[in-house]
Q: What sequence folds into this?
């Protein structure tokens, strides 16, 4: 093979004239050109490059070692020149071939990755917001529109915030239907909050008056599960405290809410009630959204639907809070709604468990 001539000196090869030297170089160059244009060259590219330009035993190195160094003085110049020409040719050919190989590879990859736009797409099931979430958003939107802000609080509470600070002392009968789900092992006793009212206290402790907040969240009670009860449900608490809030502000806010939530024709009724942390306390009823008040199966022929509990903040509560709250100066109102209950009522759902089974056939009815 031609390349083998490079293991000998020019003298050994019998190249003694300029013409003979040039033709040796021409042979080498021709053999390089033939090899680099082989189809298989990209398959053994690294070896091919090393064969020609390898530092130790590449053809160029061998020519420099065997031909150039030992060249007769009168040939030295032309050997050097021919060598430089060959070297430049080899290097620039390798460089352009390398680019050729790379762009061919990129082309192949692009062709493999090309998306076939004519294929039918994979249909993905799109979920809906859960009915409770939708109702939660409806409720908060209404209160945000009249200057309330939304805060959230812990589901694991201390008896102090869940009861005592809300004016429900240890043996108070109001605890009976709420005294539930205590967590053992904690240094202090804890329980799953039975209502969102603890956030009334936590918020007032953090922020001096005035305050206007709603607090959505999960609450827990020891109820026997049936069509309208579970061990967990969602509430949204409301609290407004300032220096001059009256019962009229309370009633006006409640009426505004009822009309926004159930429609402009809905009427509101307050019934006396009792909560240890409000005084006076009320149950808020709305005229039945199904029959408009004339009486039907849904309102049990009373014309009214019970919506939620509420009242004016009991002055005793300010005494637990301190932080600038003074029963002589401040007044306010509070309410606590069951989000699940309101959703069921408004959307005609009769079974509470449907809200928690996550059956898409049910959920898709509320897009
Ligand atoms: N926390 C009460 C409950 O869960 C509801 C309520 C809240 C009543 C605020 C009055 C004021 O039953």
A:
């Amino acid at each position: 093979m031609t390349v083998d001539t490079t293991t000998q000196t020019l003298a050994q090869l019998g190249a003694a004239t300029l013409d003979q030297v040039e033709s040796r170089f021409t042979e080498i160059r021709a053999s390089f050109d033939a090899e680099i244009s082989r189809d298989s060259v990209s398959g053994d590219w690294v070896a091919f490059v090393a064969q020609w330009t390898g530092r130790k035993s590449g053809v160029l190195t061998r020519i420099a070692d065997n031909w150039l160094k030992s060249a007769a003085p009168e040939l030295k110049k032309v050997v050097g020149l021919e060598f430089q020409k060959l070297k430049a040719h080899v290097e620039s050919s390798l460089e352009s071939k390398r680019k050729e190989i790379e762009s061919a590879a990129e082309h192949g990859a692009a062709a493999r990755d090309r998306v076939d736009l004519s294929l039918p797409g994979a249909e993905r099931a799109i979920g809906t917001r859960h009915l409770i979430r939708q109702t939660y958003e409806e409720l908060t939107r209404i209160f945000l529109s009249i200057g309330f802000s939304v805060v959230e609080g812990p589901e694991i509470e201390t008896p102090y915030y869940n009861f005592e600070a809300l004016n429900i002392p240890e043996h108070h009968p109001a605890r009976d239907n709420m005294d539930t789900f205590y967590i053992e092992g904690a240094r202090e006793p804890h329980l799953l909050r039975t209502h969102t009212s603890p956030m009334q206290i936590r918020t007032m402790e953090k922020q001096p008056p005035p305050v206007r907040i709603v607090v959505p969240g999960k609450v827990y009670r020891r109820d026997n599960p049936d069509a309208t009860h579970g061990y967990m449900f969602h509430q949204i608490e409301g609290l407004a405290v300032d220096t001059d809030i009256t019962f009229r502000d309370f009633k006006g806010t409640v009426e505004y809410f009822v009309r926004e939530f159930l429609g402009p024709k809905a009427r509101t009724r307050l019934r006396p009630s009792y909560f240890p942390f409000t005084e006076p306390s009320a149950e808020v009823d709305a005229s039945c959204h199904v029959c408009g008040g004339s009486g039907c199966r849904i309102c049990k022929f009373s014309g009214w639907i019970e919506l939620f509990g509420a009242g004016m903040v009991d002055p005793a509560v300010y005494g637990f809070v301190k932080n600038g709250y003074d029963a002589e100066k401040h007044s306010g109102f509070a309410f606590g709604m069951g989000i699940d209950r309101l959703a069921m009522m408004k959307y005609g759902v009769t079974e509470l468990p449907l809200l928690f089974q996550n059956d898409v056939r049910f959920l898709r009815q509320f897009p």
Notes: The first strand starts at residue 149 and ends at 150.
